[in-house]
Design brief:
Number of helices: 7
Order of helices and strands: HHHHHHH
Helix content: over 70%
Shape: globular
Strand content: under 5%
Distance between the termini: 35 Å
Structural class: mainly alpha
Length: about 200
């Protein structure tokens, strides 16, 4: 909705996928190299970032500097991701008649309150486990990636492959009918089943 009409959707999607995978691989190599070098447990989950890594970096030359750089880059990545995630909620509230500034403030306040509950899960609310024996931080850090993300991807894929008009998809992809048929077949019989398997893995 925010892309200019002259922008190629397939090229943009390919560039995003390549950059995302490349950065994730580089970050994984850098982080786990430090973890293994220091004999840390790589299965610590979120604690790996906020507990294990500071300990590991403290053992390295210029460790405090590199740890500061790491968390600065993490902050930038989190901030840009937060803007992308907040925009659909803000746009939805705008569609309901809210002013953009009010909608942005409401979304930011809601996210801040949830984040506050997550932070308190390490202290005051450590024993508050409202669902599945997990505290708020564990729920927030596990349910969205395990359930919400694959479910959202599955619903989007179903809508794109079975509901969207063919002419509109061809126009968006900038491809002919043969390219559209290949795209639709891949979405219907490869992407949707694989995404459903990922969703089942998160539910089990």
């Amino acid at each position: 909705a925010y892309m200019p009409d002259e922008q190629s959707l397939p090229k943009a999607a390919f560039a995003v996928a390549v950059l995302d995978i490349s950065v994730a691989l580089l970050a994984g190599i850098a982080i786990f190299s430090v973890v293994f070098a220091q004999g840390m447990d790589p299965a610590d989950g979120p604690g790996l970032m906020f507990v294990t890594l500071p300990i590991a970096f403290s053992e390295l030359p210029w460790g405090s500097f590199w740890l500061s750089v790491f968390f600065l880059l993490l902050l930038l990545a989190t901030w840009t991701s937060a803007i992308n995630l907040a925009e659909p909620m803000v746009a939805t509230l705008q569609g309901l008649g809210w002013r953009r500034s009010t909608a942005t403030a409401a979304v930011a306040l809601s996210v801040w309150l949830i984040g506050l509950l997550s932070a308190f899960s390490f202290s005051t609310l450590a024993e508050f486990r409202p669902l599945f024996g997990r505290n708020v931080f564990e729920l927030v850090s596990s349910i969205p990636p395990d359930i919400f993300l694959p479910m959202g991807g599955l619903l989007i894929a179903i809508f794109a492959a079975w509901v969207m008009p063919q002419a509109r998809v061809i126009s968006a992809l900038g491809a002919g009918e043969r390219g559209y048929l290949l795209w639709r077949t891949t979405i219907r019989w490869v992407s949707i089943p694989l995404t459903f398997i990922v969703l089942l893995g998160g539910l089990l």
